[in-house]
Amino acid sequence: MSTLQTLDRGLEAMDVVARRTDGISPAVLADELGVHRAGAYRILATLEQRHLVTKGADGRYRLGSGALAYAGRFMSQYRLAAQPIVQELADQSGCTAFVSIADGDESVAIAVAEPSVRGAIGISYQIGTRHPLSSGADGIAILAQRPPQPDDPEAVQTARADGHALSDGQIQPGALGLAIGTGSIADDVEGAIGVIRLGRPGDLDVATLLPFVQHAREAVTHL
């Protein structure tokens, strides 16, 4: 597939700047892109005009306010695109379905759906619901897709080995959850998709629900 080289260079420059939290100089950017310094300056000047990068007092360039605006719009559009998939998962499973992302040490729900026809006992789980990554199937699934660490909790190790995470009462008493990590929704934004319901230990039919969650995961990873 043919590409526009100038546009490709600009996008590559954005990626390099985004990964340098301490900023980057035009000279280093030129080396990273394999272009002359004059070319790096032109790219940075264009991005700066769009507020996608900003030049600090130290002469280094960092992401600008325009990049933040795009990030916010992306998440809104992603939520809208994911909602039909989450709704289908809720209808298939008869459980509350969700997509969550990692935000620091917490997991936050960004898309939630209830089954159109009430089946299993529902649970109050809303967009914006937060809890520690170490509790809840979604948080455990997010941790399980990261590189193994010596101090990983047993639940994370088990989820990594099984390919899915389970929870039983960590979010609220009687809440049973099943989730799978979605990988990175965007750069440095890790996600998970799954279902949750109220019930007694053993009420969650993992063998039946897991294929539904796996299918939904495949769908959201292509958004």
Structural features, described:
The chain has helices at 5-19, 26-33, 37-49, 65-93, 137-144, 154-162, 206-220; strands spanning 53-55, 61-63, 96-103, 106-113, 130-132, 165-168, 175-186, 189-198. Helix 2 (26-33) crosses helix 3 (37-49). The strands form two sheets. A six-stranded antiparallel beta sheet has the order 5-4-3-8-7-6. It has a two-stranded antiparallel sheet with strand order 1-2. By secondary structure, the protein is of the alpha+beta class. The longest helix is centred in the middle third of the chain and has 29 residues, at 65-93. The protein has two domains: 5-69, Winged helix-like DNA-binding domain superfamily/Winged helix DNA-binding domain (Arc Repressor Mutant, subunit A), CATH 1.10.10.10; 79-222, Beta-Lactamase, CATH 3.30.450. The mean pLDDT is 89. It contains seven helices and eight strands.
The number of E-state strands comes to 8
- Assigned CATH architecture of the largest domain: 2-Layer Sandwich
Determine the CATH superfamily of the largest domain.
GAF domain
Coarse morphology: elongated
Strand content: 15-25%
SS-based structural class?
alpha+beta
Main CATH class of the largest domain: Alpha Beta
Q: How many distinct domains?
A: 2
What is the average of the pLDDT values? 89
Which fold does the CATH topology of the largest domain refer to? Beta-Lactamase
Radius of gyration: 21 Å
Order of helices and strands: HHHEEHEEEHHEEEH
Helix content: 40-55%
Unreliable stretches covering 5 or more consecutive residues? none
Q: Given the structure, what is the number of helices?
A: 7
Strand order of the largest sheet: 5-4-3-8-7-6
- How does the major sheet shape up? 6 strands, antiparallel
Amino- and carboxy-terminal Cα gap: 20 Å
